[in-house]
Amino acid sequence: MSRALQIYNTLSRKKEIFEPLKAPNVGMYVCGPTVYGDAHLGHARPAITFDIVFRYLMHIDYKVRYVRNITDVGHLENDADEGEDKIAKKARLEQLEPMEVVKFYTDRYHQNMDQLNVLHPSIEPTASGHIIEQIEFIKSILENGYAYESQGSVYFDVDKYGLDYNYGKLSGRKTEDLLENTRKLSGQDQKKNSFDFALWKKSDSKHIMHWPSPWSKGYPAWHLECSAMGTKYLGDKIDIHGGGMDLLFPHHESEIAQSNASRGHDPVKYWMHNNMITIDGQKMGKSLNNFITLDEFFTGNHESLEKAYSPMTIRFFILQAHYRSTLDFSNEALQAAEKGMKKLLGVAEIIEKLQPSKSTSINVEGFHNKLYDAINDDFNTPIAIAHLFDLSKIINQVNDGKATLTKSDIEKIKKLYSSFVYDILGLKNDSSVSTDDSLVSDLMETILTLRKNAKDNKDWATADKIRDELAKLNISVKDTKDGADWSID
Questions:
Q1: What would the pLDDT profile of 56-104 be if each residue is shown by its tens digit?
Q2: In what order do the strands lie in the sheet with 327-329?
Q3: Is 174 in the same domain as 81?
């Protein structure tokens, strides 16, 4: 590795050298889903983004405690302090207990993450399982004078906080702008200012989920849960805190405020935010009703999809863009990702067949440095993938006898390729092969056998005709020492 890992820190708006704790331990907290519906492509992006961070830190020998929460209470419909709890509403509509809804969609989320080859976090706490911690957190904020009780609810006093700290340091917003832009919602007469946010909400008779507290029978607000659970499992200072860019304000901004008000200092060293996935330039999400669930991608059962796409195609599609870049969905982009991924995974099989030479004509160390430099540069997966494609061309040249590698260098390339394709990028050959894919493989094996027989009989015209007809179908045939390989272009 030629240099240390650099992370783009959202708070400072610049790349900073990653300097973890003196001991090789890293604490990472990522905001997980609110489990009231099926996971969609927008959920896949942060999961895969921070899976890369998790994988790479472990790859470079850090011990990582990765906490990803599950929101199962307190996330209201308008993401502010009013409206119905999203899970409680789902439970009411489906005539279920709220925890039935939580269990059902949490299980489905986990299944989708496993399909995408996203590693399990070290700890996956739920908001409802940490009510006591959240109540204690609120008590400390009240004691320090940065919150107030009103009619059984507790609100964070943004104006008071602003006298001592900068509310808006993460998002760049100013309190004056918040006053102008905050919508007046029903029930906000309980607040001193419209932009004050809830820490605890008193429940009304219709609210299904509630707990006793010093202020009322109620429930914790959405922003508070991450502050309380992050502190419990990672301490007062978290190395990396991540999530989607849509959480930057107000969720993460409020987390900073809560921790400063309770502990007297910022809670996070590095803030990382992945950008959005869009459809025709619009953010994909439940609120806009333009989302496609992961199950729909995997089965092809959606009017916007031309075909089904495997979990690894979705993963590779997401990794082809830098995590801070907007990623626009299209069938064309997914199909291009599918072809590219198959080529990349196919090269792993070719590496196993390489024959060693007495000398090496390739700068193996150069590829090693380029790949590590790409990931060290703020987890730049598209650049790393580009280098892997360059490396795959070299591997094909060796396989065709146009370049040479010693046995030692073949082993180095095998290890390098495996480390990046499988361990760091998290790609794998899909375990379930569709009937169509299996049929195509069997047919191609038969066709190539017929072509080999033609060549053995010196029937060059037939052999060439088979190759040319396959080329018209975008199927490339490459003759090798052991027969022939084929690929779909």
A1: 999 999 999 999 999 998 777 665 567 788 888 888 888 989 899 999 9
A2: 282-283, 277-279, 327-329
A3: yes
Cβ proximity of 277 and 42 under 8 Å: yes
398 Cβ contact list (under 8 Å, min separation 6): 354, 362, 404, 405
Whether 20 is in a domain gets the answer yes
- Amino acid of residue 319: L
User: Please, which residues have CB within 8 angstroms of residue 160's CB and are 6 or more apart in sequence?
Assistant: 145, 146
Residue with tokens 């922003």: 223
- Give the domain extent around 286: 279-424
Same domain, 270 and 290: no
The reply to whether 210 falls in a domain is yes
Question: Do 121 and 234 lie in a common domain?
Answer: yes
Q: Are both 254 and 286 inside the same structural domain?
A: no
Total structural domains within the chain = 3
Are 255 and 351 part of one and the same domain? no
- Look up residue 56 and give its DSSP letter: H
Does the residue 228 lie in any domain?
Answer: yes
Measure the CA–CA gap between 395 and 408, rounded to whole angstroms: 14
End of a domain among 274, 291, 312?
274
Together in a domain, 143 and 21? yes
Strand locations in 31-179 (E): 63-68, 147-150, 153-156
The whole-angstrom separation of Cα 239 and Cα 256 is: 14
From first to last of its 489 residues, the chain has per-residue pLDDT tens of: 457 899 999 999 999 999 887 778 999 999 999 999 999 999 999 999 999 999 999 999 999 999 999 999 877 766 556 778 888 888 888 898 989 999 999 999 999 999 999 999 999 999 999 999 999 999 999 999 999 999 999 999 999 999 999 999 999 988 766 655 555 544 567 899 988 999 999 988 777 789 999 999 999 998 999 999 999 999 999 999 999 999 999 999 999 999 999 999 999 999 999 999 988 777 776 666 678 999 999 999 998 899 999 999 999 999 999 999 999 999 999 999 999 999 999 998 899 989 999 999 889 999 999 999 999 999 999 999 999 999 999 999 999 999 999 999 999 999 999 999 999 999 998 754 444 555 676 788 788 888 888 888 888 888 888 888 888 777 888 887 667 877 776
Tokens standing for 283? 């953010």
Cα separation, 185 vs 486, in Å, equals 62
The DSSP secondary structure of 344-369, one letter per residue, reads: HHHHHHHHHHPPP-SS--S-HHHHHH
Q: What share of the chain is helix, strand, coil (3-state, %, to 5)?
A: 50, 15, 35
Regarding whether 469 and 396 lie in a shared domain, the answer is no
- H or E element that contains 477: strand 475-480
Query: 224, exposed or middle or buried, with CB in 10 Å at 0-12, 13-18, 19+?
Result: buried
DSSP state of 420: I
Domain of residue 357, CATH code: 1.10.730
343 and 243, same structural domain? no
In a domain? residue 82: yes
